[in-house]
Design goal:
Distance between the termini: 212 Å
Shape: rod-shaped
Radius of gyration: 68 Å
Order of helices and strands: HHEEEEEEHEEEEEHHH
CATH superfamily of the domain at 3-190: Deoxyuridine triphosphatase (dUTPase)
Largest sheet: 9 strands, antiparallel
CATH architecture of the domain at 3-190: Distorted Sandwich
Length: 340
């Protein structure tokens, strides 16, 4: 590194950059002068923006399905509808181990129906040219020429160097397509516009069928929703009925307990009635026996009454006789003495 480059770098970065800091155009320019970020021989000042750099299509391109490299310094790259292609970037990047590069695609490709097939970042430590793929999703041919901007690169500080920087690809380091990639592009299936159009029509038919099915589905779903509502209501009614049945079951259980208790009481009463009937029968027997005894006593009383009547008469007779005797004695013995 030259003394001037060292002085410029010291002037721009007096302290290590904080993580997440995006480099400005001035910082990018000074790093390029210090032989960082880009090989100065492939760098173009016109591609520098306020905080990014536009990478361009380079010298080599390849079309899918053929596997033949094209020299873009002599001819443009033509991509048919439904076709794939790839290019090598003009720039050779030299990413330091403490920087991460973000890749932002250009909107102009989207306007033309071109999809940019690439990653979203370049890893710290990578050195070499960049490989970009394209897919033509439009209904017309697309022409790509050398020097056209492909995407913009944004350089972001990591705050420190990574422990395992990205290793370079030997082919891309020299600006060539890797052999494996060329083989893949040679066997890449490319749809003709007619085939692509037929696929689109088939997709339209499938979409229409799906929409019809959706309409039919909605027609079926509405009654199902109503049925579901009825089922939910029925389920609630069943729940209420289950609660009522539970209450009735509890009442029946209590009634069964009361019935069992009443049956026990009835059995006890029946036993008591049987005992009472037995006692009544005994009382009847005793009453009958007492009736017989009473009749015997009545007979005895009648006999005694008869005897007493006879005795009374005899007493009366005795007293009469006694009185007569007494009167005779008084007349015979007492009165004469009293009179004498």
């Amino acid at each position: 590194m030259s003394k001037n480059a060292k002085k410029s770098e010291e002037r721009l970065f007096p302290e290590p950059l904080q993580p997440g800091v995006v480099l400005t155009d001035a910082q990018i320019r000074e790093l390029v002068r210090a032989n960082q970020l880009f090989d100065p021989r492939t760098w173009d000042e016109r591609g520098l923006d306020c905080c990014s750099y536009d990478v361009r299509i380079g010298r080599k391109g390849i079309v899918g399905g053929r596997g033949v490299e094209s020299d873009l310094t002599a001819e443009a790259l033509e991509i048919s509808p439904g076709g794939y292609a790839a290019v090598i970037s003009e720039e050779c990047v030299k990413i330091p181990a403490d920087l991460l590069v973000r890749i932002n695609s250009k909107r102009s490709f989207s306007y033309e129906g071109i999809a940019l097939l690439t990653g979203t970042q370049i890893d710290p430590g990578y050195t070499g040219h960049l490989l970009f793929g394209f897919y033509n999703a439009s209904a017309r041919k697309v022409i790509l020429r050398r020097g056209r901007p492909i995407c913009s690169l944004v350089f972001e500080s990591l705050g420190g160097q990574v422990s395992r920087p990205k290793s370079p690809d030997p082919d891309l380091l020299r600006g060539n397509f890797p052999d494996r990639f060329v083989n893949e592009m040679a066997n890449k299936e490319v749809l003709s516009w007619a085939a692509l159009s037929e696929h689109v029509k088939e997709i339209d038919r499938i979409t229409k069928d799906i929409l019809d099915l959706r309409t039919k589905y909605e027609d079926v779903v509405e009654p199902i929703k109503q049925l579901t509502g009825n089922v939910e209501k029925l389920s609630q009614d069943v729940d209420k009925l289950s609660i009522s049945i539970g209450v009735v079951s509890d009442q029946v259980s209590k009634l069964e307990i009361a019935t069992s208790s009443n049956a026990q009481h009835v059995n006890e009463i029946s036993a008591s009635v049987k005992v009472l009937v037995g006692e009544i029968s005994h009382v009847k027997e005793e009453t009958g026996r007492l009736g017989d005894v009473d009749r015997d006593q009545q007979d005895k009383i009648g006999k005694l009454s008869s005897k007493f009547s006879v005795f009374s008469i005899l007493v009366y007779v005795f007293w009469a006789v006694l009185l007569v005797v007494a009167g005779g004695l008084l007349t015979t013995y007492v009165l004469p003495r009293l009179l004498s």
